[in-house]
Specification:
Elements lengths: L1 H9 L13 H4 L5 H11 L9 H7 L2 H4 L3 H17 L5 H20 L11 H13 L12 H37 L4 E6 L2 E7 H26 L1 E2 L15 H7 L4 E2 L3 H6 L2 H28 L6 E2 L18 H24 L13 H22 L4 E2 L1 H10 L4 H10 L4 H18 L8 H7 L7 H5 L1 H7 L8 H16 L2
Parallel strand pairs: 3-4
Antiparallel strand pairs: 1-2, 5-6
Helix pairs in contact: 1-15, 6-7, 6-9, 6-11, 7-8, 9-10, 9-15, 9-22, 10-13, 10-22, 13-14, 13-15, 14-15, 17-18
The structure holds arginine.
């Protein structure tokens, strides 16, 4: 699945003669005359001179929007089918167009399609090639539509497919996390606030906190998918069309829930892309926070977990190094997702209705977020279940930081001491331990009683790590049996998707 995301990035088919994406030297080459002349084919009627060679390249989007080809062809198929059913195309014309589109798609998939910068974008590349293959009937395909409703349709279809693929990876990651949580329902580790040891928690509980973040992300992506699944096809350039069209039919053929309600909004709206980028930026933020913990935890200073070698790299100079590159890169890539969201918001904020060429700039940000998120989820879904928890080190770390001090205070409260006073007493006991370089549980009963007379032999039950976590035995708490119950609930939720 992740391979799918990376493959999208590289595009498919032959690069045009003058440029290939990602090849900067190619980008600045002067274009051939042939290609400059070609755009005259497309709208030459209105113009008295050919488009400037640089402007042609500057305004073209085929280098990146070719990723939409499969959706563009799906939209064209539905449109032609519908035009036949309303009597605009004959059955023979539709059949020729359908066959031609099949052949064009085959060329694209085989890498045999000659992308042309002169044909500006994916829509005109495909339509022009269709006409080359099937003759003048190909020119009838654009009846009753515009590239404006076409691109809006393509983008929704693209993002819907991307969302489905992303949700598969997200579910795989969550399943891995929850399975690990089940295995570590009673593994004790320090819980942190301010990155200082605070109270003992179970590792399973910590993992389930990650799952909560991701569960909300799943909800946001699912909401986004539900709202984007409407069909702009039929809005044409902005005002609709004079031809008899059946928008319900094209919507149904493309798996949309309904046609969009307003033609102006249909071609102008990119909320769905912004919503996705917002949900993705937040999800990438979560992956970044998890990454930060993994980077800390794999360090010699923490040593809580070990990542398998296949997810790490070494250093070219320091032979001892094993670096957590995957989480570091995911943390770094979260910056792109934030950047892409801001780019789209800024792109849209001042646009008057309806379509503006500005919108062509929506694609690279959207595609990059899809690829980035898809690849990061794939890496995490593969890596997280394979990581190993160093239980002894975690337990030692939880013992080292007076993590049961709150338990001692709670113990005194149960003996009738007011919480603030108990807090003060335990603070003094901790200060004593800091000086004596020992833990609260190492103090003798006598020494403990010197801080408060109500402390009895049973205090040692609450000073142990296992006693501490087991005592937080309520819904949402860290006690092992609560973690087990939460794992079960999370598994049920995942199974209901
Ligand atoms: N390549 C264009 C885009 O991505 C397609 C729509 C062009 N429409 C137009 N009126 N120039 O937005």
């Amino acid at each position: 699945m992740g391979r799918h995301f990376t493959a999208l990035k590289q595009g498919s088919g032959k690069m045009s003669k003058v440029e290939s994406p990602g090849n900067d030297s190619g980008r600045w080459q002067i274009m051939s005359d042939r290609e400059t002349e070609n755009s005259q084919e497309l709208w030459g009627g209105r113009f008295s001179e050919p488009t400037d060679a640089f402007v042609q390249r500057f305004t073209a989007s085929e280098a990146f929007d070719r990723q939409l080809a499969v959706y563009d062809i799906a939209g064209s198929r539905a449109h032609a089918e519908m035009l036949m059913s309303t009597g605009v195309l004959t059955a023979d014309e539709n059949a020729a167009i359908q066959q031609g589109l099949t052949d064009v798609l085959a060329e694209i998939e085989q890498g045999a399609f000659e992308w042309s910068v002169a044909r500006e974008d994916v829509h005109m590349n495909i339509e022009a090639r269709l006409t080359e293959l099937i003759g003048d009937v190909g020119k009838k395909l654009h009846t009753g539509r515009s590239r404006n409703d076409q691109v809006a349709t393509d983008l929704r279809l693209y993002l819907r497919a991307a969302l489905d693929a992303i949700n598969v990876e997200l579910t795989r990651l969550q399943t891995g996390i929850v399975t690990l949580a089940d295995q570590h329902a009673s593994t004790v580790m320090p819980g942190f606030t301010h990155l200082q040891v605070a109270q003992p928690v179970t590792f399973g509980h910590h993992l389930l906190a990650w799952n909560e973040m991701l569960e909300r992300d799943y909800g946001r992506l699912t909401d986004c998918r539900a709202r984007l699944n409407v069909s702009p096809l039929g809005a044409a350039a902005l005002a609709g069309t004079t031809f008899p069209i059946d928008r319900d039919a094209t919507a149904a053929m493309l798996g949309f829930d309904a046609p969009t309600r307003n033609s102006l909004d249909s071609v102008a709206d990119r909320d769905f892309a912004i919503e996705f980028c917002a949900a993705a930026a937040l999800l990438m933020n979560h992956l970044s926070r998890i990454s930060e913990e993994l980077v800390l935890w794999t360090s010699a200073q923490f040593g809580f977990i070990t990542l398998p070698d296949r997810f790490c790299t070494g250093s070219s100079i320091m032979p001892q190094k094993k670096n957590p590159d995957v989480p570091e890169l995911v943390r770094g890539k979260s910056g792109r997702a934030t950047g892409n969201l801001v780019a789209l918001l800024t792109l849209m904020k001042s646009q008057p209705l309806a379509y503006n060429k500005d919108n062509q700039e929506d694609k690279e940000a959207l595609f990059d977020t899809v690829i980035t998120l898809g690849d990061c989820l794939r890496a995490f879904a593969d890596m997280i279940p394979a990581m190993e928890a160093n239980e002894t080190t975690m337990r030692q770390a939880a013992l080292a930081g007076f993590s049961t001090a709150t338990d001692l205070a709670d113990y005194l409260v149960r003996a009738g001491v007011a919480f603030r006073d108990a807090h003060e007493v335990v603070g003094k006991a901790v200060a004593h331990c800091v000086n004596a370089d020992c833990d609260l549980a190492d103090l003798s009963l006598e020494t403990l009683q010197s801080f408060h007379g109500d402390i009895k032999e049973d205090v040692f039950e609450v000073l142990t790590l296992d006693g501490s976590v087991a005592a937080r035995d309520h819904f949402g708490g860290t006690a092992p049996n609560q973690v087990k119950a939460a794992v079960k609930a999370a598994q049920d939720l995942l199974a209901s998707r």
